[in-house]
Structure formats: C-alpha cells, structure tokens
Amino acid sequence: MAQTIICPKCRHIRPPDASNPEWQCPSCGVCYAKANEPSVSVVRHYASTPVQAKQGWNWEPLLKIVIVVAAGWGVTKYVTQMRGPETVGNTVAGTVEERLQSAATGAKRSDITLYSAPWCGYCKAAKATFAASDIPYTECDVEGDLHCRDQFDRLHGTGFPLFVVRGKRLQEGLNYDALIAALNEEKPR
C-alpha cells in the first residue's frame, strides 16, 4: 500500500504517477527531507537559549603561543647551559675572530684575496675583522683598479665582498663560516 506524501513547503499531494524522484516534490521541486519545518520543541529551545556575544579580544590563542615559545626558549637555555659551549670536532668553538685566526694560521697575504668596493659596508666589516685578528690578506678594489675589475669579471663576480681563498672562489657576501671552512680545507702542508 502506497503512502500519501504531502509536500511540507507547498502542501502539494504527490500523485501516484509522478515521474520525478520519490524524494522530490513534483510541484515545487523541493527535497521533502530538507523542507521539513523544525519541530515546535526545537524552535522553543533555540528561542529560550540566551545569546552571549563575546566582546573584546580573545587572548587564549595568543597566550598559548606565548607559553609554547617561552617553554621552548627555556628548554633551549637549559640544554645549552647543561651541555656547555658548542664543540666542533674535539675542540671548543670560540668567537668568529678566534676561529678565523686559528684557520688562518700560517696563511700568507696571497692566500686570501678580498674583492671589494669603497661603498661596501660588509667589505669594511671584513677588513676590520682581519685587521683586529692580524690576518694577512690582499685587497682588490674593483672600482679603483682596472686590473682588479678585470679579475672580478673573470670570476663572474656580481656582489661584494667576494673572497678567493688559495685560488678557490667563494660565494659572494660576508660568510665567515665559509671562509673558515675554505681556509681549513686548503691548509698548506
């Protein structure tokens, strides 16, 4: 026995010979299940529930982030303090100047070439570090010396400072770690 279906939206009675799907009203096309009106108890529940609007900033997510960052910082400080200074191989790593001075032990002026420009701040910083650590080097002013400019172009230089350590071109920029590694790698025997 077929059950009589009445559309909850338009109140159309579905005829037994309707050609559209059984879930759809032939008159208005609405889905019967979605067009059902909410029950009176649901309407009363939502009507009686007070709405509480939050005012101001929600500090909870920011507070969680601050706590995580502070905990991470504390753990890092604790581990660093317990482990002691960082070590490289079997020796204790010192300041950049100390590591550079150690790597440049026995170096000659011709071992390190610094291609620089007078306006380059990083070049000035490198020269000051070399002077303070008594590291021998050869400076080649690209803007003031055509021979230096020619060598810089042959090295495909595009930025300053550009270091060449014992014939090996390093990446442009002031990277003391790369300079120290090149000096240690190419130590004369």
Low-pLDDT sequence parts: 87-92
Report the end-to-end length measured between terminal Cα atoms: 104 Å
What number is the mean pLDDT?
82
CATH topology heading of the largest domain: Glutaredoxin
Tally of contiguous helical segments: 7
Based on secondary structure, the structural category is alpha+beta
Task: Give me the strand/helix succession.
Answer: HHHEEHEHEHEEH
Tell me the domain tally.
Answer: 2
**What does the largest sheet look like?**
4 strands, mixed
Q: Write the CATH homologous superfamily of the largest domain.
A: Glutaredoxin
- The beta-strand count equals 6
Beta percentage is 5-15%
The helix fraction, in percent, is 40-55%
Shape: elongated
Task: Please identify the top-level CATH class of the largest domain.
Answer: Alpha Beta
Please state how the strands of the largest beta sheet are arranged side by side: 4-3-5-6
- The name of the CATH architecture of the largest domain is 3-Layer(aba) Sandwich
- Give the C-alpha Rg: 39 Å
SSE topology:
Elements (H helix, E strand, L loop, with lengths): L31 H4 L4 H9 L11 H24 L3 E2 L2 E2 L3 H8 L8 E5 L4 H12 L5 E4 L4 H9 L7 E4 L2 E2 L6 H10 L4
Parallel strand pairs: 3-4
Antiparallel strand pairs: 1-2, 3-5, 5-6
Helix pairs in contact: 4-7
Can you walk me through this structure?
By secondary structure, the protein is α+β, with helices and mostly antiparallel strands. It folds into two domains: 1-47, no CATH class; 92-185, Glutaredoxin (3-Layer(aba) Sandwich), CATH 3.40.30.10. The chain has helices at residues 32-35, 40-48, 60-83, 96-103, 121-132, 146-154, 176-185; strands at 87-88, 91-92, 112-116, 138-141, 162-165, 168-169. It starts with 31 loop residues before the first helix and ends with a helix.
